[in-house]
Specification:
The complex is a heterodimer. By secondary structure, chain A is an all-alpha fold. Helix content of chain A is 79%, strand content 0%. Among the domains of chain A are: 101 residues; 169 residues, no CATH class. Chain A is built from 17 helices and no strands. The chains are: A mainly alpha, B alpha+beta.
Chain lengths: 433, 177
């Protein structure tokens, strides 16, 4: 056998050994990875959130390039800038987040106003429609109102606290007498609906007051909350460490790629990075625009600026979940419109009593604006996913990971879609398939 | 260059940089300094370029890239030998054999037009690859460094064009026919 043939034989053997080694290694990585994912499933979400935040804020880091500063100091500067902006944003928002007293007041007002509207509806009906409609409405909406009343009822501890606040407590001025009147009216409301629906029930309908058994939270609940909190500590850590990364992670993964796929993997990674970045940042911008449009609309409808901003921020953030974001915006907006008092719309000719209807129209307009202007303008074709896929993805996401699953469903679909499309295109371009 | 910048550049960060750098990194910067393509760059600029380069090792007869594939990176030979060749049905034409310090595939730094030839390692070869989009990124972050690289690229293309023109002029009308 000549030297050349000997060399080729050895090379062939080496190739086989290499393939076997890679296969065993890949199998081991899959098994260990699967086991760790299963065991550490609680850490996945904070890691994803931290990584996504680092990804979204990367352009900010890029903007803070100061040539004569080392990379670490540049990153620290960008973190400081992000921190200052977030601090002021949260500080401003915190002023509009209701405290304990305002939450109690809000619950009391909502319960009172909802019951008042319900009573008005039932009382108005006979004038307009036939008498047969009233029992039907009472039969259908009554149980729902019972549930709403139950959900909004204050427990004994909250009642005591409300009464304390009503008289002035913890250095705060007393609650307006009007809301205290609502509170007492609400106590009677508890008796109002239930007897009609359950005439044979021997139990008094105001049972929850003073009777509600409030089981002490088990010790494990506190421990699990602690675990969750410590798991979420990972998110900022991941954010910081990925922020300090200067391409080392990418280089590491590229170094694992066989030479044959070197340029291909660089191109695929880059296109994916570009597409996902555009999608995520586009979604953030879209959420901001939706929130801004809602806030402006609510201000024009006469809702106080602080409340309008709070509703705008929550609705804007939840807009990342298709369909559901709009529904939640609607529920929050109409919910507030129902309890709002002394509202003077800035648009002349609007009747303050129909505020809930105007909010409904506003949410629809913003939704249409989002679909027709914001999404095509900001996202372009990046989120070009079939509506059926969107619905299935959201339901699947909610089944797997609840609210977070719903939030991440569409980004995941977009990432997978882009990855598959880019990968196949490049594989063909590089004549690998 | 202002006095402040000079002081920061030469005294402070270079000293800190020297402490931080590992010896393979220093070796790489020393090597880049010898490559004509980067001869206009300062040491700090070379460090920036070195940070975005990928080191790849190819075995004997392994393809670095093949004709027709979209180009994405330029390669620099750290050590070893590379053959540039064109394969046709009639046979393989060897265009050049490149050794340590040479670079190839530089047109990929401009666009992703398909490679015009194959590059194959004639022996175990270590290369440094500069990816097009990394150079584009460098243009945003270190515009001056990127400009120098593009200038080198333009000069090199101009030289080649000049050489090609001379070749064409040397050919007689009879040859052309």
């Amino acid at each position: 056998m000549s030297n050349g043939q000997d060399f080729e034989e050895k090379e062939r053997e080496r190739k086989v050994r290499r393939t076997v080694f890679y296969l065993i290694f890949a199998g081991l990585v899959l098994i260990v990875g699967g086991f760790l994912t299963w065991k550490l499933s609680g850490l996945i979400l904070p890691i994803i959130v931290g990584a996504l935040l680092a990804f979204v804020f990367r352009p900010v880091k890029e903007r803070f390039r100061i040539r004569w500063l080392p990379h670490e100091l540049q990153v620290l500067c960008s973190f400081a800038a992000i921190g200052v902006v977030l601090f002021f944003a949260f500080n401003t928002l915190r002023k509009h987040i209701p405290d304990e007293e305002q939450k109690l007041e809000f619950k009391v007002r909502l319960k009172y106003k909802l019951n008042e509207r319900y009573r008005q509806l039932v009382a108005k009906l006979p004038e307009r429609k036939s008498n047969a409609v009233t029992p039907l409405i009472e039969k259908e909406v009554g149980p729902l109102m019972d549930k709403v009343n139950q959900a909004l009822a204050l427990d004994p501890k909250e009642r005591d606290l409300f009464l304390k606040y009503a008289a002035g407590y913890n250095g705060k001025p007393p609650i307006q007498s009007k809301f205290v009147d609502y509170f007492w009216a609400n106590q009677k409301t508890g008796k109002y609906v239930i007897p009609e629906k359950t005439p044979t029930s021997p139990a008094p309908p105001v049972a929850p007051v003073g009777v509600a058994p409030t089981p002490a939270p088990p010790a494990s609940e506190g421990a699990s909350l602690e675990n969750k909190l410590s798991a979420w500590m990972l998110a900022p850590l991941i954010f910081v460490f990925l922020g300090f990364d200067n391409g080392q992670i990418r280089r590491f993964f590229i170094s694992l790629v066989p030479n044959r796929y070197f340029e291909l993997s660089l191109t695929v990674l880059d296109e994916l990075d570009d597409a996902i970045g555009r999608y995520l940042r586009g979604t953030l911008l879209e959420c901001f625009l939706v929130g801004l449009a809602l806030t402006l609309g609510l201000v024009l409808l006469g809702i106080p600026l602080g409340i309008a901003v709070a509703i705008g921020v929550v609705s804007g953030l939840l807009n990342a979940i298709p369909f559901l974001g709009t529904v939640i915006a609607l529920v929050i907006g109409v919910g507030y419109a129902l309890i709002a008092e002394n509202v003077t719309p800035l648009i002349p000719g609007l009747n303050p009593n129909d505020l809930a209807l105007y909010v409904l129209i506003l949410v629809v307009i913003v939704h249409v604006l989002d679909d027709v202007v914001f999404q095509p303008f900001v996202l372009g074709s990046a989120a070009n996913v079939h509506p059926l896929v969107v619905v299935i993805a959201i339901i699947s996401g909610s089944l797997i990971m609840g609210l977070w699953g719903m939030l991440f469903a569409i980004p995941t679909v977009v990432v997978v879609k882009t990855a598959v499309a880019t990968f196949f295109k490049e594989l063909k371009d590089y004549r690998i398939i | 260059m202002s006095a402040r910048k000079f002081a920061a550049d030469k005294l402070l960060w270079e000293t800190l940089g020297r402490w931080k750098r590992s010896s393979p990194e220093l070796d790489r910067i020393q090597f880049l300094k010898t490559v004509p393509f980067f001869d206009r760059l300062s040491k700090r600029q070379l460090k920036t370029v070195s940070d975005i380069m990928f080191e790849r090792t190819y075995d004997t007869n392994e393809w670095i890239f093949e004709e027709g594939q979209p180009g994405a990176a330029m390669f620099l030979i750290l050590d070893g030998k590379i053959a540039i060749e064109i394969c046709r049905e009639t046979g393989t034409t060897h265009l050049a054999v490149l050794e340590k310090g040479a670079f190839f595939g530089e047109m990929a730094l401009l666009d992703d037009t398909p490679r015009s030839a194959n590059a194959r390692a004639l022996e175990r070869t270590r290369t440094l690859a500069l990816y097009r989009n990394d150079l584009t990124g460098l243009r945003r972050r270190h515009a001056r460094t990127a400009c120098q690289i593009y200038r080198s690229l333009a000069t090199m293309i101009a030289d080649r064009l000049r050489a090609t023109n001379e070749l064409v002029q040397m050919k007689t009308p009879a040859d052309m026919a």
